[in-house]
Design brief:
Layout: E1 8-12, H1 17-28, E2 32-37, H2 40-52, E3 56-61, H3 67-81, E4 86-89, H4 104-131, E5 135-140, H5 153-175, E6 180-187, H6 212-217, H7 227-238, E7 249-252
Parallel strand pairs: 1-2, 1-4, 2-3, 4-5, 5-6, 6-7
Length: 268
């Protein structure tokens, strides 16, 4: 029996990186997983990987900034799967560079995905999870949501925002007697494809450019984390092992927040 055997889970941004690792890990531990993303090929690859390992999964094209899309996806999850127990609000983007060069459009686009998408998913998942007997919402934040990060002011603002959003949502659910726990996860430098998505020259280029290998070597662990190491933390929060964990932040960072830090942190 797996740690989440028989549970229904939705993982946003599941087409690659941390989302894929979370989906694979939850499926391996017995959950039926619904993978959502705007990357159709990536989602199909994630589902194929899960099915190859004997797990159960399906996927939906999903713009997490669209409220109607959330209602449609969760409505289909309820009709096809019978309920919902776990939501991993993982979808996110990182737009870097000096804040005085960031456009208002980029600021708004980043917040639309990183904040609005998390709000919408949490808002619409809470009633369904409660009606399904209770469960867990896990919000993917970042170490950048706990400390400043040069070249990532907009990203840090969005990730800091979801950190306090998770705490407030947890308290609201508890006060209303809803059987829904809400926690945030804060990865450090993780080996995911997000590093390849930045413009040539890194975040602003020159002195502001990000070198992930250099950042990882500066951690206490002297390496980048593996997506599966973050997914294991998500699994813990999704499972009954974390039944007394609510409104908390789980930091998985190779020692950065302990004082062995680096100057800039991103993931997803």
């Amino acid at each position: 029996m797996g740690l989440v055997n028989g549970k229904i889970a939705v993982v946003t941004g599941g087409g690659s990186g941390l989302g894929r690792a979370c989906a694979e890990t939850l499926a391996r531990e017995g959950a039926q997983v619904v993978v959502t993303d705007i990357d159709d090929e990536g989602m199909a690859a994630t589902v194929a990987s899960i099915e190859k390992q004997g797990g159960a999964a399906l996927y939906h094209h999903h713009d997490t900034t669209d409220e109607a899309a959330w209602q449609s996806v969760l409505g289909e999850v309820q009709s096809r799967c019978g309920g919902l127990h776990i939501l991993v609000n993982n979808a996110g983007i990182a737009i870097g560079g000096p804040l005085w060069e960031m456009t208002l459009d980029d600021w708004r686009r980043q917040n639309a995905v990183n904040l609005d998408g998390v709000f919408l998913g949490t808002k619409h998942a809470i009633p369904l999870i409660d009606q399904s007997g209770g469960g867990s919402i896990i919000i993917m934040s970042s170490v950048a949501g706990l400390r400043g990060s040069p070249g990532l002011a907009g990203y840090a603002a969005s990730k800091g925002g979801v950190r306090l959003f998770a705490k407030s949502a947890a308290l609201e659910c508890a006060a209303a007697g809803l059987k829904v726990r809400v926690n945030s996860v804060h990865p450090g430098i993780i080996d995911t494809p997000i590093w390849t998505k930045f413009p040539t020259g890194g975040m602003g280029g020159g002195a502001n450019a990000i070198d992930p290998e250099a950042l990882a070597s500066a951690t206490v662990a002297h390496r980048a984390g593996r997506p599966g190491e973050i997914a294991d933390g998500v699994l813990y929060l999704a499972s009954d092992l974390a039944s007394y964990v609510n409104g908390s932040e789980l930091v998985i960072d190779g020692g950065i927040m302990a004082g062995g830090g680096t100057r800039s942190i991103v993931q997803n």
